[in-house]
Amino acid sequence: MYSGAAAAAAGSPRRDFISVTLGPEEAAGIGGYNNSKAWRRRSCWRKWKQLSRLQRSVILFLFAFLAVSGVISFTGMGETWKSITNKSLDDQRTEQEIPRLKLANPAVLPAPQKAGANHGDYPEFSLQKPPKQPHVRRGPSNLQIKAPRRDMRLKTQHDTMRAVEELVEADKVEKTEKSIISWRGAVIEPDQSTEPPSSKIMELEKPSSVETEDQKEPVPINERQLAVIEAFRHAWKGYKDFAWGHDELKPLSKSYSEWFGLGLTLIDALDTMWILGLKEEFEEARKWIANDLVFDKNVDVNLFESTIRILGGLLSTYHLSGDSLFLEKAKDIGNRLMPAFRTPSKIPYSDVNIGRGTAHPPRWTSDSTVAEVTSIQLEFRELSRLTGDEKFRKAVDEVMKHVHILSGKNDGLVPMFINTNSGQFTHLGVYTLGARADSYYEYLLKQWIQGGKKENELLEDYMRAIEGVKKHLLQRSEPKKLTFVGELAHGHFSAKMDHLVCFLPGTLALGAHNGLAADHMKLAETLIETCYQMYAQVETGLSPEIVHFNLHAQKGHKDVEIKPADRHNLLRPETVESLFYMYRFTGDKKYQDWGWEILQNFNRYTRVPTGGYTSINNVQNPSNPEPRDKMESFFLGETLKYMFLLFSDDIDLINLDKYVFNTEAHPLPIWVPA
Ligand code: DMJ
Hints:
mainly alpha, three-stranded antiparallel beta sheet, 8% strand, 46% helix, globular, binds 1-deoxymannojirimycin
């Protein structure tokens, strides 16, 4: 036993030692020691007093040091958590209503976690089975691409395959970076009314992208869809590099063309990016919309084109993303287009100055095109539903009511022009399902579907028109006996068919799916075969703008004849659009295969290596298709979107009982779902 006293008595030169004094029981090594608080306090104090000054200083310093480090590390953890919490809140903000996410007292320390809970940064696991949260809005930020299924068959050309491989590689890299993309954003239930829209307007100010309880597992993206994604990215690269914020890319001259000066391609492509799951591209484009898209401009725009591409694109993107920015912009452009309806007849003018609020017909006439004034209804009706402002709907409904009772039709077929002063059809006697009349027929059916199949006048006009088509415009070609839709001019049949007419098989199939005559489906099947032949019988495998069918068999002649003025291809969507409907409703894989051929031919003859795709002047010359140096906005808005949907086996990827596509391929919700 050491004792300070003993050491001192021994005259030890070292004074810095620790003395321990044991009590009698401790010294005796027996139990039952006194462990009372008072005794312990006294004993500690005694021991403290027995320490040298140096010993006390060392101990005090150690305590101080531990205390300071404790405080520092505590604050650091708080910061780390705060940043984690904030990050996850930011992420969710893009997915959910901001007010729902505001936490009154944000957490400072991590909440207790259940053993085994995966709270790491692994969204692909947690998102495969999203938490069941009604009203959670989906966006690209919580989307994912699954690896393509190994068993998927892929009929490829070498170049496309390589591109797909590159894309798969790129996807792998993205995955490791945990950048999650997917089309799942589209697999959502539209929020639809079961009442007529007018009576529930205020409740309907919601996008359709509301997740439901019974959300299914995502269907994996297949190789053909990946090829579409690759094509889209290539087109987007050209647009981004050389035409960003402008209307159309000129991929060869690496510049752009301006039509309205409103970033047409960017807006037209928004919902395609959403559906394809292109998160980064979508976010970039959104930023441009938020910061740079201004409608207050002294510029004349075409009412129809800006309605279907801009208003339609903004509305559908609002529905898919739930982002109110797009609705605000839609309201803005919708209001600015309204002066077009200030005409003596209420049949709108073709052009509007969206900055000045004035409207006018084209310089050479006071006529408007029939297809144009009757194919803006889906968009304006939806805008009324969302805003509660009936003026949009009233204006376009009036046009339809007027046309419904107008004379000058031929068994439901309409002429191509209508006068904005008199409200009468002009240039009577010419009937076509092609340019200037096409989407009149399409929108009769689609408005009827949009409104819950209640507006009988629309259905009557549609059914009568299809009877008119059968009676006056259908013929069969030689040698293959392809059924085609020609034109009637003052009683004379012309075997001319625009590629634009190829929307018809899809529309007929959609009608049949919605309970209309079964023979509409039969007609759709024969017509889509014809549209496919308009590609297959041509040297490049791409359709010209217009074909003439042979009515008489001639040795060495195909069904399809092409005039020099008609042999261009503008990357139009109509055939692919109809292939999509046909595949959805029949499940016949040949439609996918035909679409795949077309995609490969677009890649072969219209793809520009430095980015983008171009219209071509000559589909009959594979060695020089004569690129036109223009990528139309509908290539991204429609053609590639319909391709992607065609290759999908997921009927919930824009479910056709819940959405109706406008004529620019922008899906809008059906008000009363089937
Ligand atoms: C698009 O703007 C629309 O599909 C319109 O209905 C017809 N023309 C182009 C595509 O070809």
